[in-house]
Write a structure and sequence with these properties.
Chain B: Keywords: Phosphopantetheine, Phosphoprotein. Chain B: It comes from Streptomyces caelestis. The complex is a heterodimer of chains A (about 325) and B (about 80). Chain A has about 325 residues and is of the alpha/beta class. Chain A has a single domain, classed as Peroxisomal Thiolase, Chain A, domain 1 (3-Layer(aba) Sandwich), CATH 3.40.47.10. Helix content of chain A is about 30%, strand content about 20%. In chain A, strand 4, helix 4 and strand 5 form a beta-alpha-beta unit. In chain A, helix 3 packs across helix 4 and helix 6 crosses helix 7. The longest helix of chain A is centred in the middle third of the chain and has 22 residues. The radius of gyration of chain A is 18 Å and the shape is globular. Chain B has one domain: ACP-like (Non-ribosomal Peptide Synthetase Peptidyl Carrier Protein, Chain A, Orthogonal Bundle), CATH 1.10.1200. Helices cover about 60% and strands about 0% of the residues of chain B. The longest helix of chain B has 15 residues. Classes of the chains: A alpha/beta (about 325), B mainly alpha (about 80). At the A-B interface, helix 6 and helix 7 of A face helix 3 of B.
């Protein structure tokens, strides 16, 4: 079950006006098609590892350090091919020795990581696990491509999971996951700066897969969609997320979003939004919350939880050494 | 235009009502590339009819679009 949340954004902000100064586009074009007005960009100052460490540290920064026993980092933009990001993140958090690994599932990476971390807890490998989504997606587009550059930003988000019972607030419902390699070419980047995306087909698949997975995740825990207090969709584009909400008949007021301020932050998107919304009061303890994502692969997923009262969190503490 | 199409354009695609006339082009009505895809998905979901993005883009006016949809729905 979820018992902590945190996020990190690089300080450098790129506005639509900054982009229109160097690309043949307009603020109106970007806002009407994506809902995005600005995004945070790491540039050369912050690595994916740095962002992951900052987001993870925020989840643990409640006084005494928590005994985290496993770490999964979901990312499509690791700092290097080898080794993985997660062991370095664990060490920088003072967690050297715990199982730590990366996982790549595009913008659905965070939900895939949640499922595998919950599996580690169920298997007895760990009692608590940190799940981090960290991406620097702003590195992927061709810098001259006016259609994809505006879409992406950098950031990280994290949650802490602990063993718990299914009837507790914070307990994850079954994580519904899927993939379809026949759509591999719809979102692809063979190297940074070379992203290719078929916007129309991505839109079509994204709304279909997220709507279907969301219905499955709600049904799996016996919820009607009318029971959902907060829909937390991967922040790809406000046109996609609004369309999904309409397909699910979830009113605008129950849909959380931050794409206008951060753009598409990949695997960071959902935990970043959870952290912001929990902090500013849009997401409250007791809210029946539906998470859903779609990304390159193609990949998609959805799950549910009743948002917990994080002030009541009790975790095994680690003795300071 | 039939009420069904008008309703989709106003309530689902959020296009401005005062621009939705039979002789308006899709551009004039406020369609962008995503709105074309949105309409195609909505028509498939609601009426079970398959009208591709390019079929929608090719129509000259909203009146023609309405005729295309009505024809598909009646199975002709």
């Amino acid at each position: 079950m979820v018992c902590g949340v945190g996020a990190a954004l690089p300080p450098y902000i790129v506005s639509n006006a900054d982009l229109t100064a160097r690309l043949d586009t307009t603020d109106e074009w970007i806002r009407s098609r994506t809902g995005i007005t600005r995004r945070h960009v790491a540039g050369a100052d912050l690595s994916t590892t740095d962002l992951a460490v900052r987001a993870a540290a925020q989840t643990l920064d409640d006084g005494e350090p928590v005994m985290v026993e496993a770490l999964v980092v979901a990312t499509t933009t690791p700092d290097r091919c080898c080794p993985a990001t997660a062991p370095a993140v664990a060490t920088r958090l003072g967690l050297t020795g715990i199982p730590a690994y990366d996982l790549a599932a595009g913008c659905t990476g965070f939900l895939y990581a949640l499922a595998t971390a919950a599996g580690l807890i169920a298997a007895g490998t760990a009692r608590t696990a940190l799940v981090v989504g960290a991406d620097r997606l702003a590195t992927l587009p061709d810098p001259e491509d006016r259609t994809t550059v505006p879409l992406f930003g950098d950031g990280a988000g994290a949650v802490v999971l602990r063993r718990g019972s299914a009837d507790e607030a914070g307990a994850l419902g079954p994580v519904m996951l899927g993939s379809d390699g026949t759509g591999a070419d719809l979102i692809r980047a063979f190297r940074p700066g070379a992203l290719r995306m078929n916007g129309s087909d991505v839109f079509r698949h994204a709304v279909d897969r997220m709507s279907t997975a969301s219905r499955q995740a709600a049904t799996a825990v016996g919820w009607e969609l009318a029971d959902v207090d907060r829909l937390v969709p991967h922040q790809a584009n406000s046109r996609i997320t609004s369309f999904v909400a309409r397909q699910l008949d979830i009113p605008d007021g129950r849909q959380l979003g931050n794409v206008d301020e951060v753009g598409n932050t990949g695997a960071a998107s959902i935990p970043l939004l959870l952290a912001q919304a929990a902090s500013d009061g849009r997401l409250k303890p007791g809210h029946r919350t539906l998470l859903t994502a779609f990304g390159a692969g193609l990949s998609w997923g959805a799950t549910t939880l009743t948002w917990p009262d994080l002030s009541l969190t009790r975790l095994p503490k680690r003795s300071r050494t | 235009m039939t009420g069904d199409l008008t309703s989709i354009l106003i309530h689902d695609l959020k296009l401005p009502a005062d621009r939705l006339t039979d002789d308006a082009s899709l551009d004039h009505a406020g369609f962008d590339s995503l709105a074309v895809v949105e309409l195609s998905v909505l028509l498939a979901d609601r009426y079970g009819i398959d009208i591709s993005d390019s079929d929608i883009k090719d129509v000259a006016t909203l009146g023609r679009l309405d005729l295309l949809i009505t024809t598909k729905r009646s199975g002709r």
